[in-house]
Structures are given as C-alpha cells and as structure tokens.
Task: inverse folding
RNA sequence: GUGGCCUUGGUGUAGCGGUAGCACAAGAGUUUGUGGCACUCUUAGCACGGGUUCGAUUCCCGUAGGUCACCCCA
C-alpha cells in the first residue's frame, strides 16, 4: 500500500495535466522564442510597424462576421465561453479580425489614414493536434489598414514577411500567390464553377457536394481522388478575373519581380477565411520532414472593415506561426539566441562570508553589475564549478582571510589569474576588468 | 470528428511472463581555501485504469497524451 501512495505522488493525475494540444514553454525553449521575438521587433521597427495588443477574448460574433460563418474555423474550431452575464465570447482563433475591430473602434484611421500594425500572441483553435498544429499556438502578424487600394501594400506585406523569414535564416522558402477576385468577378466565377461541376455532382465526394453549395471555391483544393479528374478542365480563374483584379495581380507580381522575390502562381490556393479578396499568399518550407503546412499566410481584405461596420477601408496582412517557425529553425540547424551570461559569480567560504556575500551582491547589482551565486553550496569547488558552467567571466571569492583584511579575490575564469583587491574598490575593479 | 502507429528515470535509449540495465544530465566526494578533464558514489523510471495469470513493465481491453493521415490551417 505505501508503494501505491508514492506512485500517486509522482505522477500528475490526468485531470491536472495541460489540456490536449496545449503546452508549457519551458526555460530551455526560451532561447528560441527570444530569437523569434528579437527578429520580429527588429523587422517591425525597420519596416515601420507599431505593436498592437488586443484581448484574448472577443465577442464570438466578431469572428462569425469577419472570418465567415461557413468556415471551419468558426464552425468547428472556436472555443466559446459563455459569461455569467450572458455574453458569448470566443478565444481568438486569429488576430486580423480583432485588429480590424480595434481600428474601427478607436478610429485609428483618423489619426493617420494608413496604419501599419503588428501583433504577437496566443491563438486558439479546437482541432486535433499533430506536428506543427496545436490548440493553443502563437502567431506573429503584420497588418496595413487604410490608405489607397494600392498593390504596393500587398508587395510590402509580402516583403516584410519574407525579410522576417530571412532574418530567422529560414531556407528553402516557397511563396505561393493567387488572386481570388473581388465582389464583381468572384461571384461570376463561383457561378461558372457551379455550372461546370453541376453535371458531375454524383461523382464527387460528400465534402465537395457540401462545398458546391456553401463555398464553391473550395472545390478547387479538394484532395479526394474521386474529384481529381474533374479539376483538369476547371475554368481557370486567371482568365475570369475582372480587369481591375487582373491588373492588381499583375502589378503585385511585377513588384515581386522588382524586389527579386521568387514566387509561384498557384490558382488552387484558396484560403479558409472569408474576408480575403484579391491577393492571397502562403509561404511554405520545402524539405524532408517539413510537413508543417504553411509557415506564414495572408492576403488582402478589402471588405473586412466594412463587414464589421466600419467605413470601406482596404487592408492587407500576414500571419506567421511561431511554433512552426521554431520547428523549422531547429530542423534547419539554426543556432538559438545566446544566453547572456551574468558578469560575475560570487563565491563564499564559510558561514561568515556567506552572510557578508549577501550585502556585496546587492551592492554590485546596484552598481549595475549582474551577479549570480550559489550561496546554498558550501564547498569552494562546487561553487567554482557552477561559475564555470554559468559562463561567468569573473568569480569573486570571499573567505575568512579576506573578511579579516577587508578585501576580496577577483578571479578571471578565462585565464585563471586572480588578484586580491580592497573591498571598497570592488565595483571599479570589476568594471575595469569587464571592459 | 474518423483511422494507423507510439508511450520505460529529468533527457535519450536497452530489455524480459518472475518488478529493470546503459549513456547524458543532476547531487556528493577524490583530505585540509580554487573550476573546465578523469575516477568513485548517490538520487531517479516501466503514462493511467481494468482483465488474463501463481505472478505483468512485458499479453489483451479501455482511457489519456503524443504522432501520422484525412479535413483545414499558422
């Protein structure tokens, strides 16, 4: 029986574990997240994006309206929270809608007609986890809202995303671009698709039959074998784009060439969020074991603001999956952010020295010198070993003799030279050596 | 939501129907106040629940988690 009790203590009960698809980010991972966030901050600053933070919870109807009632995200992947007051809230599944909401709610367009915003934070989607797919995951995103409806912004969002990926040294990138048309040409194309598919409905899979009615564009990215033969003669969307849209796409592509960004046109690229219009794009990483899906994706959303009750305002945005980026960096052998070692390691010998060390450490920290210690260790050896492992350049050694002389030893751990200095000159002596 | 595979100390891994080895990591030490190497010792484990069995970590079932595929996406 006592055996059993020990067991119970060791294993955390299932009921207390992290929920499925959600993970702790432990201190060992810090170096990767650090690298990611530093890059994000650097790129945002360079490209003139300002950070915005929106609540984790929003009214569920925000996403229904923005992302679309018919989408998988809204239909089956949202975490819904009912408050005691009767509000229906959702854990945000993405962040473009909240950013657009904030733009309207705070009339950001009034202070400056073009807003360049970026965000970073957790998103939530209730789906089955697998590699690169979690129920709580993190995104970093860039949005430009407002200004004229100019393909230049599409290009700028893409180059920003591209530069961010480069900053992270991510290789083997593949950029896919497509246009899904506008209010004018998309409905026409949808009808053409329906006309094309109608005679074949009985031979199509169940999903496609549903898509036929709800979202004909998705017929294009069905992967069911049954449906493949019919794709060959599908009317090509590029031919059906209205003049405005095809000019828009052409210009975006010209800018890509100008910026020397390689891309591939993919007329089957249809994103699962309804707010997109015209340009849509995704970045993939090619290579073995890189089945993470898109590492970044985005597009233009000219009708989103309007759909949320704002004035008609164009926008373009991109989102990157933080966990996927880190996965790719690891897989491609990138080096994580270096931890900055603390400058000096305080070592004591004996009870009296231990007590006195406390004060010295505080004095150093106030002198803006970072200090580590292992005051709980007693042996000098063990403490030096720790100092070595921490990578501190200097160790301070305080023992009976030093206390008596009112001095302290500064040991250079790189070349093993040490010197005894008066305690009152400690801060300046350290600073001299750290230069 | 459906289906396949997986689950051994902190980490990575052996193993067998009779309760477990190894490596790394961690801690202590190799005499008296000096680290990185080496050596010694120590700590620590069969995901959870049930069944078959004299006995299960090993076989069977279920649950959970992970992973892969479909779907969709970051």
Result:
């Amino acid at each position: 029986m006592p055996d059993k009790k020990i067991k119970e203590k060791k294993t955390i009960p299932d009921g207390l574990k992290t929920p499925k698809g959600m993970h702790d980010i432990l201190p060992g991972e810090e170096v990767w997240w650090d690298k990611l966030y530093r890059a994000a901050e650097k790129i945002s600053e360079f490209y003139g994006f300002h950070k915005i933070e929106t609540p984790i919870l929003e009214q569920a109807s925000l996403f229904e309206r923005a992302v679309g009632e018919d989408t998988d995200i809204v239909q089956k992947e949202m975490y819904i929270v009912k408050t005691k007051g009767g509000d229906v809230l959702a854990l945000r599944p993405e962040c473009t809608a909240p950013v657009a909401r904030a733009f309207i709610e705070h009339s950001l367009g009034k202070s400056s007609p073009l807003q360049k915003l970026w965000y970073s934070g957790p998103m939530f989607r209730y789906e089955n986890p697998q590699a690169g797919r979690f129920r709580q995951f993190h995104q970093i995103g860039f949005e430009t809202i407002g200004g004229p409806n100019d393909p230049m912004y599409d290009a700028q969002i893409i180059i920003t995303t591209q530069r961010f990926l480069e900053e992270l040294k991510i290789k083997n990138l593949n950029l896919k671009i497509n246009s899904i048309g506008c209010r004018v040409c998309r409905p026409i194309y949808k009808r053409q698709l329906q006309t094309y598919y109608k005679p074949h409905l009985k031979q199509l899979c169940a999903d496609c039959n549903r898509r036929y009615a709800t979202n004909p564009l998705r017929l294009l990215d069905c992967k069911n074998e049954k449906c493949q033969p019919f794709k060959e003669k599908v009317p090509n969307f590029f031919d059906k784009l209205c003049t405005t849209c095809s000019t828009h796409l052409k210009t975006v592509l010209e800018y890509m060439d100008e910026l020397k960004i390689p891309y591939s046109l993919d007329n089957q690229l249809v994103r699962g969020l309804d707010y997109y219009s015209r340009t849509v794009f995704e970045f993939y990483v090619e290579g073995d074991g890189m089945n993470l899906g898109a590492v970044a994706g985005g597009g233009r959303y000219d009708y989103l603001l309007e759909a949320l009750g704002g004035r008609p305002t164009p926008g373009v945005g991109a989102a990157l999956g933080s966990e996927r980026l880190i996965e790719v960096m690891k897989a491609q052998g990138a080096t994580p952010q270096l931890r900055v070692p603390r400058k000096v390691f305080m070592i004591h010998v004996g009870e009296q020295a231990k007590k006195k060390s406390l004060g010295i450490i505080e004095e150093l920290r106030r002198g803006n010198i970072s200090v580590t210690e292992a005051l709980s260790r007693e042996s000098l050896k063990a403490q030096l070993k720790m100092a070595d492992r921490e990578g501190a350049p200097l160790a301070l050694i305080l023992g009976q003799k030093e206390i008596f002389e009112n001095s302290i030893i500064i040991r250079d751990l790189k070349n093993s030279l040490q010197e005894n200095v008066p305690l009152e000159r400690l801060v300046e002596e350290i600073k001299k050596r750290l230069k």
Remarks:
- The radius of gyration of chain A is 29 Å.
